[in-house]
Amino acid sequence: MSDPVKGGSSIGASPLQIIVKGGTTSSAHDKERAKQKAMADLGRAHQDKQQIAADQGTRMTKDGFVSSRLTSLKMMDGGSPRAVLLYLNKDKTVRQECISEVVLANGEDMTFTMVCPKCLERGEPHGSAQIMVKKSHRRWQLDTKRAGEVVPVFDPFHNQMMGIRICGTINAQDEILRCSNFGCTWAVKIANSKVEEV
């Protein structure tokens, strides 16, 4: 083994990102986040244009006959295995529901997704507020006793009810799951797909 660099580590540069409480993020981190936000804003603007065009439907305009519609607004594949996570208040009542995709990452590592409500409240883009929980990193189980059951869930705007066919319920009561975003303190345990802050 070579001699350690004066004032440095003998194992080289650390791949870990160290965040100091009350500190600031690096300029590279801030640039990457700005780039992600710009891409998300661009995608939303594109979807807004599609929606405006589709709202015209089939009708006559000053430029001629127009027939337009959207064939799909799906962000997830309808055939993806899903679970419904119930976010609880302190008094154990359901505050909100979250549709979670359950996927087999790289063909072997089972992963489920969830959203950090604290990050959404402070204005993080939806993509940055998502948490992926891998079985290789955290102990959790998918209980398939309720697989195939249709769970009623309100859409995000509470306008209409929709049915989600679940692949089971998620249990991670032996693990504390934390949001990894800078400055976020959200931490939960999950029992029978009920998400409770700790």
Structure description:
- By secondary structure, this protein is of the alpha+beta class.
- The protein has 2 helices and 12 strands.
- The protein is globular and about 65 Å long.
- The N terminus is likely disordered.
Secondary structure elements and their pairing?
Elements (H helix, E strand, L loop, with lengths): L26 H29 L2 E4 L2 E4 L14 E7 L5 E12 L3 E7 L1 H5 L8 E5 L6 E3 L6 E5 L6 E5 L3 E10 L8 E5 L2 E4 L1
Parallel strand pairs: 3-12
Antiparallel strand pairs: 1-2, 3-4, 4-5, 5-6, 7-10, 8-9, 10-11, 11-12
In which range does the helix fraction lie? 10-25%
Low-confidence stretches: 1-5, 7-16, 72-77
Q: What sort of overall outline do the alpha carbons produce when their principal axes are compared? A: globular
User: What is the CA-based Rg, rounded?
Assistant: 22 Å
The chain-level mean pLDDT equals 78
H and E order:
HEEEEEHEEEEEEE
- Largest sheet strand order: 6-5-4-3-12-11-10-7
Largest sheet: 8 strands, mixed
Structural class call reads alpha+beta
- Roughly what fraction of the amino acids lie in strands? 35-45%
Strands, count? 12
Head-to-tail CA distance between termini = 44 Å
Given the structure, what is the number of helices?
Answer: 2
